[in-house]
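> example.struct
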């Protein structure tokens, strides 16, 4: 089943075409990698999917709905979740409260008023933390976590409301090789529940966890397919051997 369908999406900033007619299909239950040189439009594409901005032209369909102009909070309610490139945990709050806030913001006010809500949320917070090896850090301030742990906390927060599609923009930026390896290990088990689109520079990392890759260059898709297909694609080789 196709979960996300992007058709002819363009995003124009003044004279610059950050996205220039992007088509992309993402099947439910797959991990999809987005690669390409700096400035090729990867973050712009993720933001268009999440609703951080609207495309200039084109359409985005998610889970059977046209979401092209849907506000971000409604996309989130419908099962879309994004972790931006820049870490955005609240460092003065505890690790626990960061996840609690992420969950509460996904609830309606009616759900929050029900007395069972806090207890149920407590279980969900601990499951989310446990999944990313942060359960024993629950009472620490988020600011006391290492950079890598803060990235994991953010992924845990993005996953806590149980999205259908998670968008990750360079989640392993600034991580040690060991932290990267662990990140791959921690993401793998979410596959049955959540489709993933991930932007990454580390090709080995992305090849290990992704089923399919899409390559962007100057706002255009220059290749999309399985890892093998992409590795054999001469246009992709040209970019990766001569320009990255
Ligand atoms: P990537 O994530 O692949 O490195 P981006 O999507 O961040 O690339 O950027 C694509 C192009 O769009 C770049 O040339 C960038 O400078 C430009 N761009 C991104 N956001 C804006 C913005 N808000 N205003 C103007 N130009 C932007
Ligand atoms: Mg980017």
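> example.seq
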């Amino acid at each position: 089943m196709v979960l996300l369908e992007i058709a002819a999406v363009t995003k124009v900033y003044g004279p610059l075409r950050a996205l220039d007619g992007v088509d992309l299909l993402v099947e439910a239950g797959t991990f999809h990698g987005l690669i390409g040189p700096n400035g090729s439009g990867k973050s712009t594409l993720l933001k268009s999917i999440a609703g951080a901005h609207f495309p200039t032209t084109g359409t985005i369909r998610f889970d059977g709905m046209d979401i092209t102009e849907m506000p971000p909070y409604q996309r989130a309610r419908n099962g879309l979740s994004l972790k931006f490139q820049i870490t955005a945990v609240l460092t003065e709050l505890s690790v626990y409260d960061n996840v609690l806030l992420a969950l509460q913001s996904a609830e309606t006010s009616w759900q929050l008023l029900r007395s069972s809500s806090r207890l149920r949320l407590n279980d969900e917070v601990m499951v989310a933390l446990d999944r990313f090896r942060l359960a024993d850090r629950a009472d620490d301030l988020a600011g006391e976590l290492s950079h890598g742990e803060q990235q994991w906390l953010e992924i845990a927060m993005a996953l806590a409301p149980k999205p259908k599609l998670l968008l990750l923009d360079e989640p392993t930026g600034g991580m040690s090789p060991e932290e990267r390896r662990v990140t791959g290990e921690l993401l793998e088990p979410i596959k049955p529940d959540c489709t993933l689109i991930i932007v990454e520079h580390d090709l080995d990392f992305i090849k290990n966890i992704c089923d399919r890759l899409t390559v962007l260059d100057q706002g255009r898709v220059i290749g999309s397919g399985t890892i093998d297909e992409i590795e054999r694609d001469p246009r992709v080789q040209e970019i990766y051997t001569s320009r990255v």
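> remarks
The chain has a mean pLDDT of 91.
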